[in-house]
Amino acid sequence: MTDTTRKQQTLLLNAALDGELDAAGTLDMEARLAADPELAAEYRRLAGLRDVIRARVPRERAPDALRARVMAMAQPPVSARPTAPRRPKLWDASYRALAASLLVGMLLGGGVVEQLASTAREDDVDRDVVAGFVRGRLSGQSVDVATSDRHTVKPWLAGKIAGATTVVDLKADGFPLVGGRVDVFGQTPVATLIYQRREHQIALSEMPLGSAGGSGPSDRRTRDGFSLLEWSDGGRRFTAVSDLPPAELDAFGAAFRRAAAAEREEPSKP
Amino acid sequence: MASEFGHRRFAEVVLPHLDDAFGLARWLTGNRTDAEDVVQDACMKALVAIDTSIIERPRAWVLTIVRNTAFTWLAKNRPKTVVLTDDEQLLETAAARQTGDTAANPEESLIAAADEAALEAAIQALPHLFREVIVMHDIQGLSYREISATIGAPVGTVMSRLARARAKLIQELGSRQ
Fold this sequence. Notes:
By secondary structure, chain A is α+β, with helices and mostly antiparallel strands. Chain A has helices at residues 3-17, 23-35, 37-56, 64-73, 88-108, 112-139, 150-158, 246-265, and strands at 145-146, 177-185, 188-197, 200-208, 216-223, 226-233, 236-242. Chain A is extended.
């Protein structure tokens, strides 16, 4: 056996021990172990080492004093906190509402008052939207139904969510559909579509608008470093979140609204 | 400094991984007092960075900062002990110098009989780049992919360092007198 294949075999042996091989690799390694006593002895030594480390080397615990100091760091500076603990949540929300409305005001030159009133509620939704997105990316399982066919996604969602979900094909615009899932915001199940752009994903959630309404302008903000884009059309609210640069998320929003409007005008087309 | 929201996020991201942060710092610096300094310093850095960071893997994110802080600390305080290179020849030489591998046939029973002190000494004797993968994988239970994200190296590098580190430990522990 050459040095290179021997080295390769050692790496695979370690990966097998660590459960990092796929099913095919595991089968192959089991066959090799059965046929090669020398390799099997190497495997037993590795397993013995792993077991003895697990059994006798304790996982460290941070000293209490250090934990206390780090927890103190997690407290916001005194100047940024309300003086009394009364209703901190309300204060919190209105503070951010002010910041958000200033930004929106500068961008749009209007709609500030309306924005102020709705931002506290939006903030909770934003948090859920971003959390859903991060969870999807972390698990590598961002969709419950994986298909690029909108005619599969739509009926799948219809079976789970009240009301029809707008599903459009944006492949031609460079945003292929990956699939859909059901998120839960607060207590409400919400339809979320996943679109792809290069290695990035966009999660688009659609929910009832609450108040009767037609269409509203798109509003972009960021949260935890993610871009969010929100708009309303036909009495429904759409919130898109992505790790894409903001400009590309804007392009996505524009493409989606265009395609959705075209679909509303031609309801006969499947 | 971080925003108010940043502080809350800091608590969510960093606090759950404080034990592993301290553990990694302890293994890299070699003692608990220095580890406390390193972790506290790393937490300050995390707090500054948190508002502008996209954090997909919180534990890897925290450990990366701890690791960088620890290596900076080592370069300043223990420059002679650190071999920071991907050159396998140099790592090999460093490992051989520290563990002195002579025995040809390590004994399974000797490995199984190693007590905490022997294990501690053997792991501590590994070069830092080997030691950290053993600590993260075998003691703290990180996956290859998480370690790869933490040390900023490909999974293949993680695998080969882990394999070499284990070979050294087996050699050392299996050939004790």
